[in-house]
Amino acid sequence: MKNFGNYLLLTFLAAVIFGFGCATTNSTKDVMAFASPTQLTATLTNGNNIILRWKNNSTAEGGNWVEFATPGSEYVQLVAFMSDAIGTTFVHLRLAPQTTFIYRIHPFFGKAAGPLEITTGISTNNSPMLGEGPIASTNEISFGRTNSQYSIRSLNTFAKAAPADFTGTLSSPTSVDLHWKDCASDEDGYLLEISAESDGGFAPCALLSPNARSFRKTGLPPRTRCYFRVRAFFYGKSSDSASATTLNW
After folding, report:
1. Which residues contact 41 (CB under 8 A, 6 or more apart)?
2. Which residues are bridge partners to 92 per DSSP?
3. Beta pairing partners, 203
4. What Å distances lie between residue 149 and 156, 185, 230, CA to CA?
5. What does each C-alpha distance from 16 to 5, 8, 21, 22, 28 come to in angstroms?
6. Exposed, middle or buried, 119 (CB in 10 Å: 0-12/13-18/19+)?
7. ∠88-92-95 over CA atoms, to 5°?
8. Average pLDDT over residues 98-109
9. Strand order in the sheet with 164-172
10. What's the DSSP call for residue 100?
11. Tally of CB atoms within 10 A around 145
């Protein structure tokens, strides 16, 4: 019985140690996948332009916002680089003289649904005038939340938190109504993206609140093939800041 008791104790301890080991491994994987950019530099060039360079360290799908501020002001989003574009350089052009500009790179993470192909038509005098934004008449039965929602902040459930059933229909010759199901439980928002190509070149066209499930995009070019993606996302930790001061013209 003593030996059997020792066996049970050793088995319990092994299970505890193994469990802690798995938790540590998963946590380490998350930290590496959602790592912050580093080595940000801001260099003043001729003409009062500032060139930014940084290093990407994350492996999870998403992208980086380039953000700037002036002393005493809040950061403003300038441009987004998607992770499939792998951009690490940006030039802020024709800046005001004798001003200090402070920059940071703010990563975001989330798996995109799509691409969804839409071909626009030709506007006529009878085409409806529609406003752009979330669609108040979303069919909650068809496009509401899913029964199961997943954390977007863990690699174990990262892919499952991506939007489901992403669909789009023309609401006018140059407007599209987009719908999707919200599968994420802890997102910071939704990012809608547009491109002229199915395999790259995507850029944000709408930054939406958490739990968003629809958007009407208007003003599309006529007789044009467009591609859309949508992703639930969360913000990672931003890079350290870098600054540069422009000269007097």
Report:
1. 52, 53, 54, 242
2. 50
3. 194
4. 13, 5, 17
5. 17, 12, 9, 10, 18
6. exposed
7. 165
8. 98
9. 164-172, 175-181, 214-217
10. E
11. 14
Q: Give the type of residue at 12.
A: F
Residue recorded with tokens 């459930």: 157
pTM of the model as a whole = 0.85
What number of CA atoms fall less than 13 Å from residue 16's CA on the CB side? 6
- What is the per-residue pLDDT across 116-144, written as a single tens digit (0 to 9) for each? 999 999 988 878 888 999 997 544 444 45
Rounded Cα–Cα distance for residues 86 and 74 (Å): 26
| C-alpha pair distances (Å), 115 with each of 26, 32, 108, 201, 230 | 30, 27, 19, 12, 8
Q: What's the angle, vertex CA 17, arms to CA 13 and CA 18, rounded to 5?
A: 115
The DSSP symbol for 152 reads S
Q: What does the DSSP 8-state code read for residue 6?
A: H
Q: Which whole-number Å values give the CA distances from 187 to 68, 111, 208, in the listed order?
A: 23, 12, 11
Of the chain, the percentage scoring pLDDT greater than 90 comes to 78
User: For residue 26, what pLDDT is reported?
Assistant: 58
What is the per-residue pLDDT for 29? 93
* pLDDT tens figures, 18-75: 333 334 345 899 999 999 999 999 999 988 999 999 999 999 999 999 999 999 999 9
What's residue 170's pLDDT?
Answer: 96
